[in-house]
Amino acid sequence: MASSSAIRKVTVIGSGLMGSGIAQVCAQSGFKVVMVDQTREILAKAKGGIESSISRVAKKKFKDNPASSTQFIEKTMSNLSTNVDSAGAVKDADLVIEAIVENMDVKHKLFRELDKAAPSRTIFASNTSSLSITEIASSTKRLDRFGGLHFFNPVPMMQLVEVIHTPQTSEETMKTLVQFSKDLRKVPVRCKDTPGFIVNRLLVPFMMEAVRMLERGDASLEDINQAMKLGAGHPLGPFSVVDLAGLDIAKFVIDGWHQKFPDNPLFKPSPLLNKLVSEGKLGAKSGEGFFKHGKK
Prior knowledge:
alpha/beta
């Protein structure tokens, strides 16, 4: 059930894996949610996926009470609506969460349009994992009411939310976003607008350094993976992590950081990673990355 926080109505822009996951947890938590995408067909597919996911949650949550399970599903789905008109969808929103393609120009265009349509009180947030919140916010006139809400995949299962503040984000906005995250039964952590925030700022250079060790011939792929599992207590080795995340995603992030901070050795691109991506070896989703996986 939604709490007495300042957020009641949420608009989620984007109905992909992250957007639909965010919409689901908002609806589950009692918020009125509008999910926006480009076509009704895309939205219908996303809404169907959410209903399937909600049904699995309900089956586990109310395994001995079918009536309560049905009620939970119906109540959650009643909180969720869809719209292909992004400007119309934000007219009475308390919070807008953007979860679209990781392209700065596309995000700027979207937020310029939303800034004109949304009430001045509406808080804007981006779910970006690698782009600058400050730069995204620069396309609007509500710099004090703009922050980052970085959820993790799969959103319904992952507890963490990184709540990001720019130099202009007000403390009131941050408190509202932190409380909203708690209302979703998530665990918020605060971070300033630094590349990758907390998790990816540590994780991506870690993965890249493992790749560089392999490139230098310091150790084998298998031994690097095993060493970090047994020596550092990691559940997965770095090559397993990058295969799951996607080699193309790792390349996109590190290339972007290198372009912006070319003198930082942690952000240096990898010839081996570039080669694998150019060959279509993107990790588990393509069937092969650093390891071979089942055909997708």
